[in-house]
Design brief:
By secondary structure, the protein is mostly helical. The chain contains 23 helices and no strands. It is about 70% helix and about 0% strand.
Length: about 425
């Protein structure tokens, strides 16, 4: 908790230390990478619509209120900042950063579940905070890290709970269902993780038992139902992102998801479908060598005191780290290729499988060719791969783990603070 609070304060100060924009949302969108769109304001616009009693259509730019899950809006409206100041920009930004950095608490719980060693958990969480994924998405407060938080919570509870089925508390099933529903209500990219882990859950039903499992499903369904009804009747069609990601249909139309999927695949030859999957895999595995080389180039420029040249190199690095998963993991991006090692270790195997299955589903289901960039999916896989790498290494050599984490942190600070 102390690390979480400290990280929140550091990030807020960091983002707004040199503000060239009166809006903290635009400052967060422009601070580190290329100019990002206004997606971080969508939950705020939704909250404003509720507060004013009129939710506009479209809600933000061309986005409907039914296009993006509403959890961050609901959470913000329950904060003291909203209750006191209303839909204030600074109140929303501060709350949004705090919501995103809940990922550090979830990461701590997972690291402790895998290793039961406090030192390893501390180093893992510190290294996770100093990754491009957390720094950028923690300040640019679209609710991607919030979704990953609840996914990690649900997976940790399901796979690492030591409570036997006969001794499950009455709260276990509802809590499991609650975490799963909150993940889905945070961000649509969660669906790729959900589809990926369903087979793993079905292969281990004894973890909860039939009765507890039915309770969990019932709780999730009851929480998701109001949002589905809102999408269907209040601001239809509500299936825009699903058709975009799974069928390549960007414009709003009257087709159902099955109809869009069938037509998309009927109109595309098998060879083209395979090329799309190959392009998705290539983007996912895009090696971070160019980023590493440019980082060394920027370090070399320090000798020449060429600050402008360094800034240009670092801006290019940060832009690539926003899009590509391995690059967005920073120095630890190389650990993606070590995933087979974590599969061999009983302590990390199940989490490794969840990451592998999620990535496989992502590659296979994303329809547009080469669209497996970080912001079009879930942040769960890269986050847990970072945790897997550090915990796996820490269980073998805490000294080597700390050394690797320090190199990673120093390089990230250089890229994002210089």
């Amino acid at each position: 908790m102390g690390l979480y609070l400290a990280a929140t304060v550091i990030l807020l100060l960091w983002v707004h230390a040199v503000s060239g924009d009166i809006s903290p949302l635009r400052e967060a969108a422009n601070r580190w990478t290329h100019s990002l769109p206004g997606d971080n304001a969508i939950p705020l616009d939704f909250a404003r619509g509720f507060a004013e009693g009129v939710i506009p259509t479209p809600l933000h730019a061309t986005w409907l209120s039914s296009d993006r899950p509403p959890l961050q809006t609901a959470m913000f409206m329950l904060t003291p900042g909203f209750l006191i100041a209303g839909a204030d920009l600074w109140a929303y930004q501060a709350a949004g950063v705090a919501f995103q950095l809940l990922i550090l608490i979830a990461a701590w719980a997972l690291a402790m579940a895998m290793t039961d060693q406090r030192r390893i958990a501390i180093v893992s969480v510190a290294a996770l905070f100093f990754t491009p994924i957390v720094l950028v998405n923690g300040a640019y407060v679209w609710p991607k890290l919030l979704a990953a938080t609840f996914v990690i919570g649900a997976i940790t509870l399901y796979f690492y709970s030591d409570i036997s089925v006969s001794k499950k508390t009455v709260l276990y099933g509802p809590l499991l269902g609650l975490l799963a529903a909150l993940a889905m209500l945070s961000h649509g990219g969660t669906v790729f993780v959900a589809i990926g882990i369903i087979p793993l859950v079905l292969l281990r039903p004894y973890r909860v038992g039939i009765r507890t499992g039915m309770i969990a499903v019932s709780v999730s369904a009851s929480m998701l139902a109001p949002w589905i009804l809102y999408q269907t009747f209040a601001d239809p069609p509500g299936n825009r992102l699903v058709k975009w990601h799974l069928a390549g249909v960007e414009v709003i139309d009257d087709r159902t998801v099955p109809e869009a999927l069938i037509q998309a695949y009927e109109n595309m030859p098998i060879q083209a479908q395979l090329r799309h999957r190959e392009a998705n895999l290539n983007v996912l595995l895009k090696a971070p060598w160019s980023v590493n080389e440019k980082t060394w180039d920027a370090i070399a420029e320090l000798k020449n005191q060429n600050r402008q040249g360094i800034q240009e190199i670092l801006r290019e690095i940060r832009k690539k780290q926003f899009f590509y998963m391995t690059m967005g993991m920073g120095f630890l991006g190389l650990t993606l290729y070590l995933l087979p090692l974590y599969l061999l270790d009983p302590q990390t195997r199940i989490i490794s499988l969840t990451a592998l299955m999620s990535l496989t589903v992502w590659v296979l289901l994303k329809f547009p060719a080469g669209s497996t960039t970080i912001h079009q999916g879930s942040l769960y896989p890269p986050i847990v791969i970072i945790l897997l790498a550090l915990t796996w290494l820490g269980m073998r050599s805490i000294t080597l783990m700390i050394a690797v984490a320090c190199v990673h942190i120093i390089l990230t600070i250089f890229i994002y603070l210089i």
